[in-house]
UniProtKB/TrEMBL annotation:
This is Hemerythrin-like domain-containing protein. Residues 68-204 form the Hemerythrin-like domain. The lineage of its organism: Eukaryota, Fungi, Dikarya, Ascomycota, Pezizomycotina. PANTHER family: EXPRESSED PROTEIN (PTHR38048), HEMERYTHRIN-LIKE DOMAIN-CONTAINING PROTEIN (PTHR38048:SF2). Signal peptide: none annotated.
Length: 307
C-alpha cells in the first residue's frame, strides 16, 4: 500500500517539540471544509470515492484497520485519476491561443507519476501483501481474485505510461483517435472496479485471527519498506500528499508520514516543479480548486460502482 513505502521515514522523526494537539490545529486551519466547497468540478468525481469502513463499522479486529488503510490508499489513486480526467479536456493544445508547452509538459508528467504510483502500489501487493496473507490464512488462493484483476488493466495502463513519456507537448490532445481520453477509457472502469472490490475482500477476513492478521500485515510492511528507494520522493510522495484529502472521513492521519514531510515536499524535493499544480490538494491535504477545469467535464466511462 502507498503509506507502507514511506512509513520508514516516520519511524525516527518524532520530535519533543511537537507536543501539541495536531488535531485541534487541523480543525482550526481547515474547519469543516469539504472538497466541494465553492470549487466546482473536483477530484471526487467522476469516479466516486470509497467510504472508509472504520467510519461506519466498529470493531477491534484488525481486518477493519487493514481495510480502512487500504481504502485511504485507493482513494489517493482515485482522486488523482479524477484530477486527470477533470483537467485533461481543458488544457489548451497547440492549436489554441492560450497554449503553453509547459502546461502540457507538466500535465503529462503528472500522469506519468500517477501511472508509476499505481504500478508500484500493485507491485507491493503482489510481491509482499498477497503472499503474506495467503500464508497466514492457510488459503493459497485467498488473494487470487485481486491478483487476476490486476491483469485486466496492467497492459493498457502501460499504454498511458507510454503516451505520457513519448508525447511531445505540441502533440497532446484529449479527444480523438490519438487522444489521452481513449486510453483512459480503456482501463479506468476495470481499475476502479478493482479498487472497490479489494476493500470488500479485506472486509471478509473477520474470521481470521486478529492478532495474527496484524503480525502478518507488519511483516509485509517490513518487506515493502525494503523495496522503496529515495528517488520515489520526487514522484510518489508529492502525488500521495497532493491527493490525500485530510477533510475526508477518517483521513486526518493519512498518509502516516512524519509531520515535516509536507514542508520537505513544498520547499525541497518538489519545489519549483509545475507537475504538482495538477494535484487536487496541497501538500498538507487541504482540498483546492483544480488548475484546469470547465463548467462540466464530458467523460465516456461507466462509473456505476457499489460501495
Amino acid at each position: 500500500m502507498l503509506a507502507i513505502l514511506f512509513s520508514m521515514l516516520a519511524s525516527d522523526c518524532q520530535s519533543p517539540l511537537i507536543l501539541i494537539n495536531l488535531q485541534a490545529v487541523f480543525n482550526i486551519l481547515y474547519g469543516n471544509m469539504t472538497a466541494q466547497s465553492n470549487m466546482g468540478p473536483w477530484a471526487d468525481e467522476p469516479f466516486p470515492l470509497i467510504e472508509i469502513p472504520s467510519v461506519k463499522k466498529k470493531s477491534d479486529h484488525f481486518y477493519l484497520t487493514a481495510a480502512s488503510e487500504m481504502a485511504h490508499a485507493h482513494n489517493v489513486l482515485i482522486r488523482s485519476l479524477n484530477a486527470i480526467i477533470q483537467q485533461g479536456p481543458h488544457i489548451p493544445i497547440s492549436t489554441d491561443e492560450q497554449y503553453e508547452a509547459t502546461d502540457v509538459a507538466d500535465f503529462l508528467d503528472y500522469v506519468r507519476c500517477w501511472v508509476k504510483t499505481v504500478h508500484h502500489h500493485h507491485s507491493v501487493e503482489e510481491e509482499f501483501i498477497f503472499p503474506e496473507m495467503a500464508r497466514f490464512s492457510g488459503r493459497p488462493g485467498l488473494m487470487d481474485e485481486p491478483r487476476h484483476q490486476h491483469e485486466t488493466f496492467q497492459t493498457v495502463l502501460k499504454n498511458l505510461e507510454s503516451y505520457s513519456t513519448s508525447t511531445k507537448p505540441e502533440q497532446y490532445q484529449w479527444t480523438g483517435p490519438h487522444g489521452m481520453q481513449q486510453i483512459i477509457d480503456s482501463f479506468s472502469k476495470d481499475l476502479t472496479d478493482h479498487l472497490y472490490t479489494e476493500i470488500q475482500v479485506l472486509l471478509n477476513m473477520g474470521d481470521l485471527s486478529s492478532e495474527e492478521y496484524k503480525k502478518t500485515w507488519a511483516r509485509a510492511e517490513v518487506a515493502a519498506k525494503a523495496s522503496g528507494n529515495l528517488t520515489l520522493l520526487f514522484e510518489m510522495v508529492p502525488l500521495v500528499l497532493g491527493s490525500a484529502d485530510k477533510t475526508f472521513d477518517g483521513g486526518e492521519d493519512f498518509p502516516p508520514f512524519p509531520w515535516i514531510m509536507p514542508y520537505l515536499a513544498k520547499y525541497g524535493f518538489a519545489a519549483r516543479n509545475g507537475t504538482w499544480r495538477f494535484s487536487p490538494c496541497d501538500f498538507w491535504g487541504k482540498p483546492r480548486p483544480l488548475a484546469f477545469v470547465g463548467a462540466s467535464t464530458s467523460v465516456t466511462v461507466s462509473t456505476d460502482h457499489k460501495t
